[in-house]
Amino acid sequence: MSPIPAIKDLPHLDDPLEDSKRIAAYRAVDENLDVEVHKIIGIGSGSTVIYVAERLGQYLQDERFSQFVSKFICIPTGFQSRNLILENGLQLGCIEQHPVIDIAFDGADEVDVNLQLIKGGGACLFQEKLVSTSSKVFIVVADYRKKSSQYLGSNWKKGVPVEVVPSAYVRVCHDLKNLLGAKQVVVRQGGSAKAGPVVTDNNNFILDADFGEIQDPKMLHENIKSLVGVVETGLFIDNAEKAYFGNADGSVEVV
Ligand code: 5RP
Questions:
Q1: Whose CA is nearest to atom 6 of ligand 1?
Q2: What EC number(s) would the UniProt record show (predicted)?
Q3: CA 134 remoteness from chain centre
Q4: Residue 158 has pLDDT above 80, yes or no
Q5: Atom 4 (ligand 1): residue with closest C-alpha?
């Protein structure tokens, strides 16, 4: 057993960007987790959420909190997050058994002033949306680069991730361009030229659809969802309660 390291005493990491991710995640956990109330915890995907799981692991090692945190059930959003839960000694659960989640933490690719998000850079957007919309409280953790300078699409230039049924991907590419005005749509590819399309945990493909700057993310989300073959979009609308943006100097902006 050892007490949770105080944020002010943390040694710097090798990379200032990692410092900014860690400070956002640690502050988000410290300020939003209520160990006596929260029992089912959603754990998202990506490189910032690593520090959320790490912080929960530290709570588990602290005798003041251990009796509560050892009973937490953590719901993952994919393979990486499942491993994060296990590696930090936390209990893994599944959303089929726990469809109501008390609090979820996840990263984002871009966040606007209204807390609308682009997510899915890691191709886990369906489970991420399932977990975040099943959560009573959804907290975003991100480094300073993720805060949108204005409209969604101004920082994240790779396009809106869209999960599609494989047999419909050509039709959806066509509709995204011809019906909804996407400038470009690419089928996300695996690591190497030979790998072929990325296949999600649900055996679907991911399209990245470039709409430039998005003035009405809610309408765009609804329009994309209405296309035959679309499973889910990476536009997360009216769901996040707060976003923590970490800066390399150790400060955090909470929106
Ligand atoms: C994965 C996601 C991630 O949360 C998003 O890509 C942010 O990742 P990171 O914390 O590495 O910047 O949506 O599908």
A1: 121
A2: 5.3.1.6
A3: 14
A4: yes
A5: 107
Q: Does 163 qualify as catalytic in the annotation?
A: no
- Gap between the Cα atoms of 76 and 89, Å rounded: 14
Q: Closest ligand 1 atom to the C-alpha of 50?
A: 10
Over its C-alpha atoms, the chain yields an Rg (Å, rounded) of 18
Residue range 20-33: mean pLDDT, rounded: 98
CA dist 9 to 5, 21, 107, 154, 246, Å?
Answer: 7, 16, 24, 35, 16
DSSP class per residue in 165-191? -GGGHHHHHHHHHHTT--SEEEEPB-S
* ipTM of the complex, rounded to two decimals: 0.98
What's the gap in Å between 104 CA and the centre of ligand 1?
A: 14
Q: What distance lies between CA 62 and its chain's CA centroid?
A: 27
* Of the candidates 163, 107, 159, 114, the residue with the CA atom closest to the CA atom of residue 131: 107
Q: What is the pTM (predicted TM-score) of this model?
A: 0.96
Region 77-105: mean pLDDT is 97
